[in-house]
Amino acid sequence: MADVKEQIAATGQKLMNHFRANDMKAAAQLYAEDCKLMPPGTETQHGRRAVEKTLTDLWASGGRSMELVTDELGLMGSDTAYERASYTVRGQDGSVVYQGKYVMIWKKIGGSWQIYIDINNKMEA
Fold this sequence. Notes:
single chain
């Protein structure tokens, strides 16, 4: 389990780094090809293009960095895991643009852990 936690944490760090670098195409590659993104207030989005667009829109709204904090991570079999966590998106000046919580379902595909389902919500200020 420790190995899985390290691999998922490393992928989360890559996601934060790609977002900070405004490289949403690379960030989307951390998601499974057939992923589902379930942001608040919209229909379920499908695939990496949807992830790339959502992250690009988040950047356009002023987000410049993203912090992900895992509260719970567990295995559901040998190739599926869940993560319950929170996120904070900050602007260029460090102010909070968005804060919320999320649950991700991870799948081990081709030897690497990829985000399969990403359900998130926004906390009100």
